[in-house]
Amino acid sequence: MTDQQLQALKIAFTYMPQAIEVTRHEYGDRYTVILEHIETVRAALQDCGIDPDEVGGEINPDLSPNSYY
């Protein structure tokens, strides 16, 4: 994966819902498919050595809370 492709994947990931937000009430019967898609993208980021939980802060630092550690 090129740096540009990885950056695009990170950006797209920031627009995906968080897994905890995906419920049957919100997404209907497709909620399990959406959860699988989220996990697929998370795994792809991890395979590239990227922590998915840190991507949001990297892409949108102005929207991320400050770290205290």
Can you tell me about this structure?
The protein is mainly α. It has one domain. 61% of the residues lie in helices and 0% in strands. α1 (3-15) packs antiparallel against α3. The longest helix has 17 residues, at 31-47. The chain is globular, with a radius of gyration of 13 Å. The mean pLDDT is 92.
- Please, what is the oligomeric state? single chain
> Structural class of the helices, strands and pairings?
mainly alpha
Tell me the overall shape: globular
Number of contiguous helices: 4
List the helices and strands and how they pair.
Elements (H helix, E strand, L loop, with lengths): L2 H13 L8 H4 L3 H17 L4 H8 L10
Keywords:
69 residues, mainly alpha
Give a quick summary of the entry.
The chain is built from four helices and no strands.
